[in-house]
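Holo prediction — coenzyme A.
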Amino acid sequence: MSDLSYLFNPKAVAVIGASAAPQKIGYAIVNNLIKSGYKGKIHPINPKEKEILGLPCLPAIGKVETPVDLAVISVPARFCVPVLKECGEAGVKGAIIITAGFKEVGVEGLKLERELQAVGKKYNMRLVGPNCVGLMDTHTPLNASFATGFPEKGNISFISQSGAMVIAILDWSFQAGLGFSRFISLGNKSDLNESDFIESCAADPNTKVILVYAEDVSDGEKFIRICTKASKVKPIVILKSGTSTAGAQAASSHTGALAGSNLAYDTAFRQSGVLRTDDMSDLFNLGRAFSTQPLPQGNRVAIITNSGGPAIIATDAIEKSGLTMARFEKETIDQLRENLPAESNIYNPIDVLGDARVDRFRLALEKAYEDENVDSVIVIFSPTAVSEPEKIAETILEFKKKYTTKPVFAVYMGGKTLEKGKSILVKDNVPTFTFPESAVKALEGMARYADFRRANDTPPALPLPKVDSNIVKATFYDVIKDKRVLLMGYESSKVLDAYGIPVNHTYLATTAEEACQISQKIGYPVVLKIASPRIAHKTDVGGVEIGLHNRREVEKAYNRIRERVGRYMPEAPIYGIEVSKMIDEGVEVIIGMSRDIQFGPMIAFGLGGIYVNLLKDVSFRLASALNNRKAIEEMIAETKAYTLLKGYRGQKSADMDTLIDAIYRTARLVQDFDEITEMDINPLRVHTRGATGLDVKITIGQPD
Ligand code: COA
């Protein structure tokens, strides 16, 4: 792990491009450093000035006589490379490049950015940006940015790819009463990216939760490695924008069409314990929840309310989420019955009625907290003429302090009359919402993360399977030589066979006589399929005949196929006709793969056959995660296909061991061969003993 302490806690900071003109960014940075209370030395650098904001100003960083850890650069783009070189010569450890005008503006900018990277590498100097706002650490304290203001001290780290987001969130945080440990603007991520900062924040003792706004992830493999480790220590919540399906539209396989980059992100996040949100309010609601509440020990929620409607909404939201409504102990119910008015609801949600004053809330809180079947509490309050919002808020705080292992959330449904009560809660760290669904969403995120933390470490990896990669290499060599990207059926069959993935052997016949001989050998009934690199949809051109039971039928079918294909597609080159055994027994599933540009091969599993895209009964995992039996079992169990495989309506159960092994070997194959871009085994028929891949489509990339 690279130690980035010189960025967040530098001994001395130089501001290159510091300015005495208050409207300039170079002025704002020096001013922010001073105002943040930064205790180290600040060196403004500007050849024209002797003093800036009361600090002596030097003409170049080389003139600073004591070591400088961090340089903040705010000179026009064309000067950045020479300035960065000077920083390198002066022994600077890290540089924040605020300047815009790099890769975001096109090829010239990209060239300039590459030069910055090269300088950074040469001097072993880590770079933040360019094109960023800078960074802040409230505990150092350090404000090395040109943002307006400095956040309240807290325990949330916010990492953002968008600079505007940093500025906006910072401004909003003052009225929202949210405290931060760090604010980091990533900019163009020429060197340090989200993964580096997630790793650094995970090791930061002042950070309890890491929030990220990301438009993309720079290095998928590194991201997964770092997040998998970091999320075991601290929650990471990411708002990933840009949910494009362009990749999916361009895909030619079933799996590719179902996948797309958004799904790859989902899969990678889930696999590495990262929580994903879709909007800003959820991101910060979760931030506040994690920063102020203990992790729930389970999923059982108690609701206390003085109004029926909102409680029903909350109950519905809970039922739809991964949470459950707690079932109270008999003792809890008895005591609520004894002490609340007869009209109250004493089961969960506890409705203390519209005329409830603080005493009824106190009783309900006490009983809910004490009940062993309750893991967390949501108080939903609507104002009435007789209710006491502030007193109720103070009572919630009392219980929060007493029962430190159970999270509590408040929903104060209303506006002006509740402001005081809300601020009492917020000030003392109770996440407070205006509507119940947001509270449930935040609590669900916490519960999901708590589940992830409770789950055991990764189960032992399966032993490496015995495979023959030379056969695969040789097959791909032939396909490339033939200037094709799609493997013919008999070639795919060889590839699967070499990796021990059960496949219906397919043989190529170039004459009717040969087709008959093959059929004789493999046994009837057989299937014939046209073999042509130009014909992807064989049925459409009459290129398939099934259920052929003897020599005569095979011979006739062979000639019919040749005749029909010759008529429909006279120009298509014909390699021959593929012969394979007809198999129609077993559960039809699909094992597929599509390769994501960031996260690599992704495996799909689900109900197979021609309705794959319609039914969308598919679960996805990154191939790298499918190295143990538990992961594969979980993947299968997520689908409806699982119900069929277990033996639906008196059917015998299918051979799960063979299926698990087939998925494992497919994951191995696509990791071993980067050139496979897409793959479908559809259907794979899983029998009561064994399995058979019937139709296999493998696409490889042609070398440049
Ligand atoms: N060493 C030290 N100081 C230097 C210098 C050098 N090699 N070269 C120039 N300077 C000084 C200038 O003399 C000037 O000082 P002055 O105010 O006393 O004249 C100062 O650095 C700034 O240079 P200037 O040419 O005035 O540029 P600027 O302040 O108008 O703009 C940037 C500089 C970096 C702010 C601008 O180029 C930019 O990128 N703006 C966009 C920033 C942004 O949006 N970032 C992303 C946020 S998401």
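READOUT: The first strand starts at residue 12 and ends at 16.
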